[in-house]
Amino acid sequence: MKNDRLDISLDYLRFTVEADGETLSEELENTFRDILEGDLKADKAVADYIRQEKLESYDNSGFNEMSSYPETRCLVNYFGIKDKPLLRRIDKKISSIRTAELLRSPIDMPFSFDLLKAIHSHLFGDMYPSSGMIRTSSSKKHREYCQPEFIESSAERLFGNLRESKYLRGIEDVDDFVNELAYYMGEVEALHPFLDGNGRTTRLFFNALSLKAGYVIGWGSADPDHFLEANVAALDGDYQALIDVLEEIVIPIQED
User: Fold this and answer.
1) Nearest to residue 40, comparing CAs of 98, 121, 79, 124?
2) 220-250 residues labelled b (16+ CB within 10 A) or e (exposed)
3) pLDDT for res 244
4) By C-alpha distance, which of 48, 6, 35, 37 is closest to 97?
5) Long-range contacts of 151-155 (CB under 8 A, 24+ apart)
6) What domains lie within the chain, and their CATH numbers?
7) pLDDT tens column, 131-158
8) Averaged pLDDT of the chain
9) Strands 250-252 and 215-217, sheet pairing
10) Sign (positive/negative) of CA torsion 151, 177, 230, 216?
């Protein structure tokens, strides 16, 4: 991996960590770097971390895999973790390792809803039996997201439009590209198809799409709080804040 691609990927991973309110440690950065450079397999890094945390497989028979454990806010998971702060810490660490893996070796599929599901499955498949599966219950955080019965049909229409737009390739004007990118990012955010991990999955999807379209998103210059606020505004159909954020960090790839 060329140094510029390595730096871009590390910036992305640093942004992901900071978006969760944390600082990228030297140890984790070295793990990311080793994965990105091909010196460490993500499977080994995940297995080592699971052993380090003394996690063991848990019998989830009797639990609905698309729900949380009773009287907890913890999604049913392979380790039976029912403490939310602990689950969040384990989840973030493992999914970040898998993110580094996908930055090095992206999934070779068209930029479709199936790819979005495949990314989610890869990021969270070590943790949750529900990874890659469409939620079957209503979801609301900053705003109410798409109702579960409309997710498939809405996704078919949205990703069909993205396909017809040739996945935003061939757009030479940066402002035009940013406008289109902001629209699709906002629409997928509103779709919110998974129980959890939607933001991380959507961000990785559009990061890869932008690279294929000839643009780099400079996550090293992005403010996680501003990015979150812009995404929330987009849920109400106001894309201008997201456009303003992206205008500052989307850069055309310079050909040699």
Assistant:
1) 98
2) eebeeeebeebbbbbbeeebebbbebbeebb
3) 95
4) 35
5) 151/191, 151/193, 154/191, 155/113, 155/191, 155/193
6) 3-252 (1.10.3290.10)
7) 999 999 998 776 789 999 999 999 999 9
8) 94
9) antiparallel
10) positive
State the helix-helix crossing angle for 84-104 and 26-36, rounded to 10 degrees: 30
Q: 87-104 pLDDT, tens per residue?
A: 999 999 999 999 999 999
What are 150's two structure tokens? Answer: 């409309």
- Six token digits for residue 6: 């390595």
The amino acid at residue 199 is: G
In the chain, the percentage of residues whose pLDDT exceeds 90 is 86
Sign of CA dihedral 130, 131, 133, 135: positive
Give the SS3 label for residue 250. Answer: strand
Residue in 47, 126, 144, 35 with CA at minimum distance from that of residue 87: 126
What pLDDT shows up at residue 254?
A: 79
Q: Scan for tokens 């960090």, then name that residue.
A: 249
Token pair for 109: 């599929």
Q: pTM for the complete prediction? A: 0.95
